[in-house]
Amino acid sequence: MKPYLAACLLVASAPLLxxxxxxxQSRIDFTLKQMDIPMQGQFKRIGGDVTxxxxxxxQGRANLTxxxxxxxxPTADATAQTKQPAWFNATRFPTxxxxxxxxxxxGGNRFQFSGKLTIxxxxxxxxxxxxxxxxxxxxxVDGTLPVSRxxxxxxxxxxxxxxxxxxxxxxxxxxxxxxxx
Amino acid sequence: MKPAxxxxxxxxxxxxxxxxxxxxxxxxxxxxxxxxxxLSPLRLKLILGHKSAGIAVLLLLALRVIVRLASHVPPLxxxxxxxxxxxxxxxxxxxxxxxxxxxxxxxxxxxAYGIPVVFLGVLHLPEWIASDPTLxxxxxxxxxxxxxxxxxxxxxxxFFALKHHFFDHDGMLNRMRLGGSRSMEK
Lengths: 181, 186
Ligand code: HEM
Description:
Structural class of chain A: mainly beta
Largest sheet of chain B: 2 strands, antiparallel
Largest sheet of chain A: 11 strands, antiparallel
Strand order of the largest sheet of chain B: 1-2
Helix content of chain A: under 10%
Largest interface: A-B, 18 and 16 residues
CATH architecture of chain A: Beta Barrel
Strand content of chain B: under 5%
Low-confidence stretches of chain A: 5-15
Shape of chain A: elongated
Mean pLDDT of chain A: 90
CATH topology of chain A: Lipocalin
Mean pLDDT of chain B: 92
Low-confidence stretches of chain B: 182-186
Subcellular location (chain B): Cell membrane
Transmembrane segments (chain B): 15-35, 47-67, 87-104, 141-162
Oligomer: heterodimer
Protein name (chain B): Cytochrome b561
Family (chain B): Belongs to the cytochrome b561 family.
Structural class of chain B: mainly alpha
CATH class of chain B: Mainly Alpha
Distance between the termini of chain A: 23 Å
Bound molecules: protoporphyrin IX containing FE
GO biological process, one term (chain B): respiratory electron transport chain
CATH superfamily of chain A: Lipid/polyisoprenoid-binding, YceI-like
CATH architecture of chain B: Up-down Bundle
Number of strands of chain B: 2
Shape of chain B: elongated
Number of helices of chain A: 2
Strand order of the largest sheet of chain A: 1-4-5-7-8-9-10-11-2-3-6
Order of helices and strands of chain A: HEEEEEEHEEEEE
């Protein structure tokens, strides 16, 4: 009887266990403006875990790690350039990290997270609304987060010029993780 | 001798010829500069200007084709043999085809890279090729190859025009001279 009880307890506490995200289904895209012309890019490798039960959102949290080297921009030149020290300095700072500190329900399937985003060794407070939906066995978080690239020193020296690349970059996150029962 | 005006291209054709010549030579020179530069803010700014100059060539070409079909085209000098005349016409056709193909290949390359082309900062041109990095690289080489052909054809074109004017003394350059009929000395 004892092992059965233990298993029951484990299942019951599952919603509070962090679920590793489904890396294959999760993506982070971003839009930057180059001389007023929008350009898309993405990070292809994201890891981490999410605990989020809509019924108990305040207990939810997320911890995401983005592999800088998985960045992709329209041209191979640009992709290579963004790993350089003036941009992300991917060798010294191979990952970016988002850790939430609170998640608030906004009604319906909408929520708002607050947390800390670390890019290139710089940590800033961030907050953004997102939606939570179910797609089969997965729960999916979708939202956008505008960030100032200069606040993280992404694009230094000649690249700090915002006439060439605008300061504001719009991050679009789409994070999928197994739904808790 | 025919009346002077008959031996000349119509004024709009002359204007378009020289306007496009300036734009094409400029776009070409800026293109070479872009090629030589590493990725930098200057390179991005030059590419932006280069694209607008190239799209302007495309728009003016459409106008030029209409004007050419609608206006008087002076016959080639009578001293040219039928074969020479045929070759001259083929050369001109090649110029028209390349003036279309070169900017189109540039636009296609940008489109395949997924980089929008915005003419003069206001007119968003359609992206007519789906984003495809491999295809974009191929189109980049196509743009280079077509540019090489265009450059060679333009050099040949200028060479023969000058040869006619200064060696054959047939007043070839007057056909495309700016400044109206009063400049017809010949
Ligand atoms: C008459 C029109 C044009 C001429 C004579 C011209 C000429 C050139 C030349 C000589 C180059 C350098 C070769 C190279 O780097 O590959 C170049 C590069 C380039 N052209 Fe054009 N071009 C024209 C129109 C256009 C148009 C309409 C566009 C796009 C809308 C365009 C986009 C580009 C781009 C993006 C490059 C840089 C390619 C790279 O990254 O190396 N061009 N062009």
